[in-house]
Request: fold
Amino acid sequence: MNNILVTKEVTKRFGSYTALNKVSLEIPKNSIYGLLGPNGAGKTTLIRIINQITHPDQGLVLFDSEPLRPEHVTMIGYLPEERGLYKSMKVGEQALYLAQLKGLQKAEAKKRLKYWFDRLDIGDWWGKKIQELSKGMAQKIQFIVTVLHAPKLLIFDEPFSGFDPINANLIKDEILKLKEKGTSIIFSTHRMESVEELCEHIALLHRSEKILDGKLSDIKKAYKNNKFQVGMHSSNGHIDLEGIKAKFELSSIVQDPSENHLSFTVQLPTNDSGALLNYLSEKGNIHNFQEKIPSANEIFIQTVQSKSTHE
Amino acid sequence: MSKLALIIKREYLAKVRNKSFVIMTFLSPLLMVAMVVLIAYLAKVNDAEKRIVAVLNQSDYFSTDFQTTESVSYIRFFDMDLETAKDSTLKIGYTGLLYIPAAENLEMVTKETVFFTKDSPNSLFLKKIEWVFEDRLRESRLQGIGVSSKDFAKVDREFEINTSTFSGEQNLKHINEIKAGIGLAFGYLIMMFIIIYGGFVMRSVIEEKTSRIIEVIISSVRPFQLLMGKILGTSLAGVTQFTIWIFSAGLLLLVAGIFIDVDLNTLNAGPDFIKKTTGDASMPIPSLSETANLYTQEVFELPWFMLVSSFLVYFVLGYLIYSAIYAAIGAAVDNETDTQQFIFPIILPLMLAIYVGFFSVFNNPHGPIAVGFSLFPLTSPIVMLMRLPWGIGEGGVPIWQFVTSILLLLGTFIGIVWVAAKIYRVGILMYGKKPTYRELYKWLKY
Reply:
């Protein structure tokens, strides 16, 4: 099987409130899977179910093709959004404790911690208490503790919050390296630019239901709406804008009369841009022609909004 | 190491390494001993205050009485009228004026005798004066019917009825109070332990919630494991602290007793009193040490093995029930100030157990109230322990009551821990507003 995690019609209710309604997901191995959705969509509940913090009322969760069992917690690493550490406990002791709770032997945990502490350049924090560290520093410790037991599946809930841009980049690189080494990663976030950068697959949850999932590139293809961005100029000083307008549906027109520069967006009925290109090439020189592919952010907003207005 | 053991170890170390815990552990016995010494010292000082009493004796009696002693000086006024005597006494600032008027006979004299003081007099001291009158009156009355004091002393014996159990063992009269006292000590220990360490458990839960480490932890261990580890780790720290307290307090009291030379007996209300009643009447009442021996023997013969083992059972079950509730409260709220409304209902049965136990078990260890409260699971750890010094079976706690009480406690333990674990499991992941009791009830169904 190529999926590290599969959920089948997972449903979870809290009293009369349904937090998850028949959510089915397939999370492929060795990929970064973006779990997206507005606040309260059910992301955290789903993640908690995967971590066996709560249990589904109905449905099935398969981890590496096996029904989820308590022993699986040692193969999962989880960085929650609401995270913290014992304030008055020393960094090293605390990391050792958390690693042992994940099933690592003490000596092995120590060895690996040393490696990670050196790698992230925080070797001299071992004997410090968390309350002496800054928030960003504590986040680094938290990240190390999450990945230390080399889990098959890593779940990051808003991993970059609390990091400055430099450290956020550092962590992003580490996440990519982990993926290269074969770890599967679930990535839950609101920051769409990081989704764009990292995720190969996404699922979109909205009001307790999955409303979209698949490969990000496929989704983008599906969400293409035949819009093209065009930039033109003419050497003889005139572009027949009115003529183009009459034949095609234009928007976002920017014209610069002195330099005879024109840019606009065209909405075509189909994805076939041949006729447009032919027509335009007669009108002037095309220096820029590009299909407008929606960003993850646009897809997110568009899908959520259309879903909301439909109801 | 198993996860539970890891959690217990962490909770234990986190507790015992805590600075305020260390300070409390070593400072409390000092404070306690200092307090005992201070009280003893103050009692001594208080007792050492010398009283001066003016005596205006116009009668023909009591000429040899009221001799100055270590604690009271008697100053005699002569040839003075009452008003002058009162004025002088007040002016000089004596403790009081004992006015014994002239009259036909002793009966009349004593009837009209007045002890004047500024404020109402110390009753113990007053008793001492009264004894003088009692002695003289008895003497004169005996003479009146032609009996000599010596003869009277022969016949005037206090009588103590023999008490016995049906099986024929001898009973000591005040042993009931002693037994209840021993039980009370056990019950009190349990209550203190629950309140102190239950609070620790609660704070520890709140800390994990506010530091937001909780979700990291319970993605590795089950909430129930964490709950149990926390309770057990904290209680081990508690047992450590209690052990240190008991040993160091004992040691310190011993040392303090030797060096400061405070007679702790001064705490007992007036050894003078006992001397007076037994000595003056010159009656061969069994000596004090003899009685004490009997009591000591009786106390030694208490079913200690049963007592200690049932103490452990009640202690463990009672403590687990209450600390599970404390943990659930900690999980339900976000900060300690929100805990008040939930804590009161827990403290209530504990207080009730102590007071009901105190009043009803002392009077009648096997009466209906005592039985009821020793069966009710939230009070039984305390009240049953107060009854158990009477033994189990004949003359003591009926076996069915003992068994029922344990079974009820066990059942409640399972029920409460189940409920508390549910509330805990849901509560630790709830941030924000303080839940109502209704919401807590809803959590049980999540």
About this structure: Chain B has two domains: 3-35+173-443, 48-145.
